[in-house]
Amino acid sequence: MRATLLAALAASGLCFHAAPLCASRAPRAATPMMPIGMPKVAYRVPGSSVADWVGIYDRLYRERIIFLGQEIDDDLVNKIVAVMLYSDAEDPNKPMYLYINSPGGSIVSGLALYDTMQHIASPIATVNIGLAASMGSFILGAGERGKRIALPHSRVMIHQPMGGARGQAEDIRIEAEQILQIKSSLVGMYSTMTGQTRERILKDLDRDTFMSAEQALEYGLIDKIVSSVNEGMEPRQVYEGGLG
């Protein structure tokens, strides 16, 4: 019975383990197996003949492509800031591309990223590929003017900052004053980004305000809607990669 099954597998070209019946098949080209876990891609450093597997995000960083694809917090922002500072030091005239699909997060962390984007010389194109909500929408609008982009079915949500406090009454008052000061600053920066009046921004921040890509364009948070990766975006140099 076993011999009959193995013969049938050999005839079909299938091979589940190294067996004499499969030895006659043409050997496959020797290719390293991609490690399990974080997606990796083959990469060969320019000038080198040896390729290796690197994390896909690390590979994209080499092309000055950065992903903001989760809740904004100190750990994420510190990594993004480090990549931006290094890339800017490497070539301050070459643009970076910040792809955003984020529900928002920490205001303080978001402002640290915003300040870094304004601080460095490299132009930063922001691209909304899903949902840019809360601080995610703020970072989207902080991109280089003319390079703030959205994909057709992406969405934006803006709202006022949220916070909480506990403890003595004086501590709660101090925390509330801080939140109001931050809100006032955000209103001013949103107004500068979009061209909307402070009164309009205050009204729209009062509750969760969702926008389609078209509405975000009309509002002034983005500059264009693109359906192709090359539409309205500058060509990027692609480093030599692969295993060949």
UniProtKB/TrEMBL annotation:
InterPro entries: ClpP (IPR001907), ClpP/crotonase-like_dom_sf (IPR029045), ClpP/TepA (IPR023562), ClpP_His_AS (IPR033135), ClpP_Ser_AS (IPR018215)
Record keywords: Hydrolase, Protease, Serine protease, Signal
Gene3D superfamilies with a match to the protein in the record: 2-enoyl-CoA Hydratase, Chain A, domain 1 (3.90.226.10)
PROSITE patterns in UniProt: CLP_PROTEASE_HIS (PS00382), CLP_PROTEASE_SER (PS00381)
HAMAP family per record: ClpP
Family from the record: Belongs to the peptidase S14 family.
Name of protein: ATP-dependent Clp protease proteolytic subunit
UniProt GO BP: protein quality control for misfolded or incompletely synthesized proteins
Natural source organism: Prymnesium polylepis
Lineage: Eukaryota, Haptista, Haptophyta, Prymnesiophyceae, Prymnesiales
GO cellular component: endopeptidase Clp complex
GO molecular function: ATP-dependent peptidase activity; ATPase binding; serine-type endopeptidase activity
EC number: 3.4.21.92
Annotated signal peptide: 1-18
Active-site positions on this chain: 134, 159
